[in-house]
Amino acid sequence: MSNHANINAAILGYGFMGRTHAKAYQDAQRDGYPVTLAAIADPNIHTNPAQPAGNIDTDQSALNLDHVTQSTEAHELIEDPSIDLVSICTHTESHVDLAIAALSAGKHVLVEKPVALNPADVQRLADAAINSTKLCIPAMCMRHWPAWTKIRELIQSQSLGSVRSAAFHRLGSRPTWSAEFYKDQSRSGGVLQDLHIHDTDFIYHCFGKPTAVTTTGDPLHVTTLYHYDTIPHVTAQGAWDQQPAAGFQMKCTINFESATLDFDLSRDPQLILHQADQSTPITTDPFTGFECEIRWIIDQITANSHTTQPIQDAVTVSRILHAEQQSMTSNQPVSIS
């Protein structure tokens, strides 16, 4: 974090994820980051009741909106010259058009996942970002989750040897917030685009683009085998078909030549390194990926960074997910061109 003029942030869409962004901005300001949550826009901002809790507790009870402008019109905030950064937390079908409008108005953009269900629409935003001087970042929070950044560091360094296998599990029940939206697969993309996308993105982030995918399942439960020339076995399983009482599970196991790295969100410690007959806890920062991605984009803005790579990565991930959907429909492996 560097010294910089204060960044005024606005949130478009104030459902569960909008509240999560709001809490992350206010926590970042509390910890000395040069950011202020200045405004929120939502058509139901004055009547919107408290949202059900999400898969991961983000403790939104401490939110203070006393000095936050509240509007029912997203474009009112996009055109506001005092706003520097826009978080887009609306329903998926509006993401790309709002993000392009915000870039055109000279705002930095953090856009929630999935950026869009159609790879061509994600590409449309990526093209706009390339022609902008502002940042356009997809909110792929697992890239910023402290334990998962450590996992990627160990994969990239090869200090434990090459990866032999990697298995990711993200299992829960269909979201109860914005319930009608999530029930409509044509709008939400089902578990593939809403939940499983996190693991597809992180796998690409760690290992690059697979040569092909083989996916089985349905809109409530998918399992994908990612084909790589140099890694024998990479899989990810995502589910919305668990009963609410079963809770949410987020786990991954990475087997290296000389170690096993094991993450379990529900455990303390969450990350453990197993080598031969010894198990060593790995301590990481006590932040969620939501908090870290907000702090990361603030750091990028204060450093006057201009990276288009994350939004271009979102194009590739969208194409991989499209191939997974094709594989699930055809019951055949699908190559990634």
Task: List its traits.
11 helices, 24% strand, six-stranded parallel β-sheet, 15 strands, nine-stranded mixed β-sheet, Rossmann fold, Dihydrodipicolinate Reductase, domain 2, alpha/beta, 34% helix, 337 residues
Could you explain how this protein is built, in words?
This protein is of the alpha/beta class and 337 residues long. The protein has two domains: 7-140 and 291-306, 3-Layer(aba) Sandwich (Rossmann fold), CATH 3.40.50; 146-287 and 319-335, Dihydrodipicolinate Reductase, domain 2 (2-Layer Sandwich). It is 34% helix and 24% strand. Strands 14-13-12-11-7-10-9-8-15 form a nine-stranded mixed sheet. A six-stranded parallel sheet has the order 3-2-1-4-5-6, sandwiched between helices. β11 (249-256) and β12 (260-264) form a beta hairpin. The longest helix has 22 residues, at 309-330. The chain is globular, with a radius of gyration of 20 Å.
